[in-house]
Design a protein that fits this description.
Elements (H helix, E strand, L loop, with lengths): L14 H19 L11 E6 L5 H12 L3 E4 L14 H9 L5 E6 L4 H8 L4 E6 L5 H15 L6 E5 L6 H10 L6 E5 L8 H9 L3 E5 L11 E4 L9 H7 L7 H5 L6 E3 L20 H20 L2
Parallel strand pairs: 1-2, 1-3, 3-4, 5-6, 5-8, 6-7, 8-9
Bound molecules: N-carbamoyl-L-aspartate (NCD).
Length: 307
């Protein structure tokens, strides 16, 4: 990791980058939780441009910048910008980049958009999700969460469940996990939502052990982590969504059937695939996971700004 770098894909992270960011996140967390007011990013400006809806990613970047003592300018909803008059996101970014932000965070429905933004902009660009492709900072907070629970990532058995085809958190998390020895990935999904070829090809190249499953029952008792994802409704045909809706649900009653319950993670938002009665289990980690996102993003911003 170095100052000024773009973060476009989780494939950029080495194991030592991830460990560096986790350690820094832990240090920043201690300082923030002890009540210290950080001024590390004082005078620096983060620009957040989300062309797709977002709660956690957008707001945790903004909170992270605020807690580092910096400022954020947000694009706001598209309807309030000249894109409502037909301006392209590229022209929008080129303009804002000329105002000299220190860092830009972008999300867009098109795969490859963040890479294009990085070519247009002088400021470093962080990919906060480009269509079905990738969501590298989500993967950082996911791995940070696993590390906080188990004290290591190596050797963990991680089940990734749900929409593995259109879910960008799945590809980025798979790539990030591939840095750690003896990790086993179990993909659990309806057949038509299995992970994309390009993702499995990279895991093969990196000699990661993985298996594909259609039923969670087959594998749940082997898992340390069960990472549930929603159907990416906005990326599929309406009839596909209707057919697959409700085809996998993790509930309290379902989990209680097993002697061993893995920790339950979810990038959120959840819809129907993870019921709210699971929240009362000690294994429910998804809100903790969202909280971890704040600290890992503080670490990432600090590193890229070089402050
Ligand atoms: C995810 C995303 O946007 O890809 N949300 C998030 O950033 N936490 C997951 C999703 O939308 O399903």
């Amino acid at each position: 990791m170095y100052r000024g770098m773009d973060v476009l894909s989780a494939l950029q992270f080495s194991r030592s980058d991830i460990e560096y960011l986790i350690n820094l996140a832990e240090e920043l967390r201690r300082r923030v939780e002890s009540g210290e007011r950080l001024e590390l990013a004082r005078g620096r400006i983060l620009f957040t441009a989300f062309f797709e809806p977002s709660t956690r990613t957008r707001l945790s970047f903004q909170f992270a910048m605020a807690k580092l003592g910096g400022l954020t300018i947000d694009l706001g909803p598209e309807e309030a910008t000249s894109m409502a008059k037909g301006e392209s996101p590229e022209d929008t970014l080129r303009t804002v980049d000329s105002y000299n932000p220190d860092l830009i965070v972008v999300r867009h429905r098109e795969p490859g958009f963040a890479a294009r933004a990085a070519q247009i902009c002088r400021a470093p660009v962080i990919n906060a999700g480009d269509g079905y492709n990738e969501h590298p900072t989500q993967a950082l907070l996911d791995v940070y969460t696993i590390w906080r629970v188990f004290g290591r990532v190596e050797g963990t058995r991680v089940g990734l469940m749900g929409d593995l085809k259109y879910g960008r958190t799945i590809s980025s998390l798979s790539y990030t996990l591939s840095n750690f020895r003896d990790v086993e990935i179990h993909y659990i999904s309806p057949r038509e939502l299995q992970p994309r070829e390009e993702v499995l090809k990279i895991l093969d190249q990196r000699r990661v052990k993985y298996e594909l499953h259609e039923k969670l029952d087959e594998v749940i008792e082997k898992l340390d982590v069960l990472y549930v994802t929603r159907l990416q409704k906005e990326r599929m045909k309406p009839e596909e969504y209707e057919r697959l809706k409700g085809s996998y649900i993790v509930s309290y009653d379902y989990l209680k059937k097993f002697k061993h319950i893995p920790i339950i993670m979810h990038p959120l938002p959840r819809v129907w695939e993870l019921t709210t009665d699971v929240d009362s289990l000690p294994q429910a980690m998804y809100f903790e996971q969202a909280k971890n996102g704040l600290y890992i993003r503080m670490a990432l911003i600090k590193t890229i700004l070089g402050v």
